[in-house]
Amino acid sequence: MKCSMIDFIMAKKEAIKKSSWTIFGVLVTVGLLGGGYYTGFSHGQDRVQYPNYSAEVMESTETLDANFNLFWEAWHTLRSRQIEAADINDQDFVYGAIEGLASSFNDPYTTFFPPVEAAQFEENVKGNFGGIGAEIGIRDGILTVISPLEDSPAQKAGLRAGDLVLKVDGKRSDDMDITTAVGNIRGEIGTSVILNVFRESWLQSRDIEVIRGNIVIPTLATAFFDDGKIIQVKLFSFNENASSGFYKHVKGALETGAKGMILDLRNNPGGYLEVAKDLAGWFLPRGTLVVSERFRSGPDSELYANGNEALVDFPVVVLINGGSASASEILAGALRDQRETPLIGTKSFGKGSVQELVSLSDDSSLKITIAKWVLPKGHILTEGIDPDYSVELSDKDIEEQNDVQLDKALEVLHTLISN
């Protein structure tokens, strides 16, 4: 059954009370995390740390500036009077209270996972399940496609960045938290999921069937224009192969006389922070600030370019859109701040916080925001990056494969080369 525009508007109004984006991440079957720090690929993490300890339960002599008796008063009142209280055990009651503690920060990335959900979270991060190959999240309370992966089941089925997922196999998504939504979307490889999707250019929602698959995430692709004088490098992910792949393709292009580059970061949800730093080192002099990590207290942790500087004076433009997140935003923002590289497309996603995953004593866990990413000129990435040249892709452009954003990038790059 399709949802009308009225249903959509009502859902929007209800969602105003809820927080904005909570990224779940790429629904894939391949391992994404590996080791080290990974930026912005899953559950909204810019960095996920896995401490090698469990939280210790300690006696505290700290005086709380709160009436804790009120908690027990509420506990006993709910226990004795709520109609379904007998169906909830004391431990789940405790978990609910901890979820309330986490939600008091109004931060969609600070969350509590009971043991079963904690195990599911780590499984999701490692990617050991069948998926549709799309980065999804919750925006204003509505399940939303952030970015379908290149050549994924999601892309082949017609999903696009910004699509609103109103139902999953007939179940309303506004009644789901992100964990529930993901649990309903993922499943065995070869099976299908029906997503009821609304797009801004449509009058009503439509059902889209997606066949779950084993997702292979590509690293990059290249294209050439003007008889090889301009190279387009489309980077799909800042994964462990990105640095070597970039080196191989760009080195070859330079050797054959390329005069300019279009760095295409559209629909790139992020990846390893170290890779973003490595790639920045191609375009920025050694020792140039790339990004800062701002904590609750203490000095910022600063990350500097340390690369081969081969493209420091090379004409470059960068393509971004709403699917460009985390590492993509770090690299694009650093190039604009530090060498005035033009950004072309639409506003980036705006994922600029750092999370730490802390294991608790019963195998539950807390995912806690501990820092924010700040670009060299002070822009905090949670706000997203506005392009220097705003160019929208219409439905007609996409259907006719008319990439007006790429056309604008070529136009701007030609000007840079001629100057």
UniProtKB/TrEMBL annotation:
Q: What processes does the entry annotate via GO biological process terms?
A: proteolysis; signal transduction
Q: Which domain of life is it from?
A: Bacteria
Record-linked InterPro entries: ClpP/crotonase-like_dom_sf (IPR029045), PDZ (IPR001478), PDZ_6 (IPR041489), PDZ_sf (IPR036034), Peptidase_S41A (IPR004447), Tail-specific_protease (IPR005151)
Q: Care to name a GO molecular-function term for this sequence?
A: serine-type peptidase activity
Give a GO cellular-component term: outer membrane-bounded periplasmic space
Residue ranges spanning the membrane: these are 21-41
Looking at the keywords, is Oxidoreductase present?
no
Which keywords appear in this protein's UniProt record, sorted alphabetically? Answer: Hydrolase, Membrane, Protease, Serine protease, Transmembrane, Transmembrane helix
Signal peptide span: none
Q: What's a Pfam family in this record?
A: PDZ_6
Q: Where is the PDZ domain?
A: 118-186
Instruction: Identify the PANTHER family for this entry.
Output: CARBOXY-TERMINAL PROCESSING PROTEASE CTPA (PTHR32060:SF30), TAIL-SPECIFIC PROTEASE (PTHR32060)
Family per UniProt? Belongs to the peptidase S41A family.
Q: What is this protein called?
A: S41 family peptidase
Q: Which organism is it from?
A: Candidatus Harrisonbacteria bacterium CG10_big_fil_rev_8_21_14_0_10_45_28
